[in-house]
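Late entry, written up from scratch paper. The run itself happened at the end of the previous shift, but nothing got recorded in the book at the time, so transcribing now.
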Amino acid sequence: MKKIVMLGTRFDTMGGISAVVNVYRAAGLFQRFPIVYLDTHCDGGAGAKLQLLLRTWCRFFVLLLSGQIGLLHVHVSRRASFWRKALFFLPAFLFRVPAVLHLHSGAFHEFYERECGSAGRWLVRLVFDRAAQVIVLSQTWRRWAATITANPNVHAIYNPVLMPAATAEWDARVAGQTLFFGRLGKNKGSYDLLEAAGRLAPRFPQLRLRMGGDGELAEVAARAGELGIAPQVELLGWVRGADKEHALASATLYVLPSYSEGLPMSVLEAMAAGLPVLTTPVGGIPEAVGDGVEGFLIAPGDVAALALRWEQLLSDPELARRMGQAARHKIATTFSAEAILPQLEQLYRDMGYLPV
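Output as recorded:
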C-alpha cells in the first residue's frame, strides 16, 4: 500500500502542531496506518530551518516521483508555515496525489485578509479549493473556511488530548497558584493578565502567576516589575514533560486571555488535568469551555472582567474545584484521544486507507 505522508513541525519543537502530532504518536495512529512523518520546521536559527526544509523537500520528491505517496496530510499554520507547505501542496496537486489541509493557526483569517495581498489570497484559495479534504479545529473555523472556499469537504475535528489516569487531589494543590502557557505577548493576553494580577495582588497575597512559554519574556518581566508584582510572577520558559505535569498538578486555575486562537492545546491539557479555565470566546474555545460550567469566558482585552472572574475563583475554592471536575469530564467525553482519533481515522478510511 502507498504511504500516507504527514508534514509538520519536528516532534521536539515548541507550539501547537507538534503537541497535536505527539498525541497522535502516543495514541498509536502511526502504528495503525502507514504514515511517514516528514518535518518541515524546527526551532533554532534560519540556517538550520532552511537546511531541514531542503532535506525534507528532497526526500518528499523522491517519494513522490517513485509513486510511494498515496495521501498527503499537511499541518498548516500561517505566514512562513503556509508558504513552506505550498512547496509540497503544489507538486502533490500536479501529480494528482490527494492532499489533506489541516489548519491550526488561530490568526489565519488575519493573515489571509491583511497580509497576503491579491496574489497570496489567490494561492491560499487555490490550496483550499484543490485539497481533497480540509480539517479545521472547530465549527467556528469551519464557518470561516466557507467564506473563502467552495470545497465541500471541510471537517471540524478537535485537537485530541491524552487523559491523565488521575488528577491531583484539590487539597494537595497550591492555593492561589494560577498557570498560563503560551507565547508571551499581546496576542495571548499576557499584559492584560499582568494588569489583572496587579489589581488582585493587594487582596490576595497568596496569588502566584506562573507563566510558561517563549516570546516576550524580558518585556513581560519588566512590566511585572513596573506593576510591583514581580515577586508573584514566575516565568518558566517553555515547559515540557514531567515539569508540565507538575505545574498542572499544583495549580488551581488555568488562564489564557487570548485575542485569537485555533483550539489551544494548553486549554485542553489544563481541563484534562482538572483545572477550571479562565479564557476568551475566540476560535474554538467556546466549544470547549462553557461560560460558568468548565470555567469563565471574558471578552479579549477586558481587564476588569478578567480580574473579577479571577477574584471569584480565588475566593471560592469549591467553585473552582467543581468547574475543574466539569472540565475533566468534558475532555473525557469530547476531546480525548479516544474520542477524536476515530474521526481522523474514518477520514483516512473514506480515502481508501484501512488500519495496517
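The chain has a mean pLDDT of 97.
(Scratch paper discarded after transcription.)
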